[in-house]
UniProtKB/TrEMBL annotation:
Region (Disordered): 1-41
Basic and acidic residues biased stretches: 22-32
Organism: Hymenobacter nivis
PANTHER family membership: COLD SHOCK DOMAIN CONTAINING PROTEINS (PTHR11544)
Transmembrane regions listed in the UniProt entry: none
Entry-linked InterPro entries: Cold_shock_domain (IPR050181), CSD (IPR011129), CSP_DNA-bd (IPR002059), NA-bd_OB-fold (IPR012340)
Top-level taxon of the source organism: Bacteria
Protein name: Cold shock domain-containing protein
Molecular function (Gene Ontology), one example: nucleic acid binding
Amino acid sequence: MGRAQETFGKKENEKKRLKKKNDKEEKREQRKANAKPGQSLDEMLAYVDENGNISTTPPDPTKKRVIKDEDVRISIAKQEDMEPEDVVRLGTVAFFNDSKGYGFIKDSQTQESIFVHANGLAGGPIKEGDRVNFEVEMGQKGPTAVRVKAAAATPPPAPAAAK
């Protein structure tokens, strides 16, 4: 049976492999030549100065500051109890596709666009431009509007009393 033909790609891959091997060997030889056997511990140490920079010189003992153990905090600070947000939000339907059953509501307070699916509708169908009340829950890809209902129409302002 004949020998497998060497293609251009195979030759190039073999050249790259040999070059990588030779480079690795050269680097190893350079490390051996530049190595300083028997370095003392002081030569291998690095120090951090008062500004947080790494240096080879030891710190000045006159600039030493004493820090109390109780001042060092290793854990996460306690979070204050947050007030619950207003769970029911008000917004306007910016886009809704009835045939596909999804759309977006623009929150009137934060002006962010929130995804809404037909499964999240609680008060019947909605269409673009409708004012709606909704709650936000985290979905698979971000915030999702749920329990969406048409907002109650605001009553017109009362007429001013005649004097």
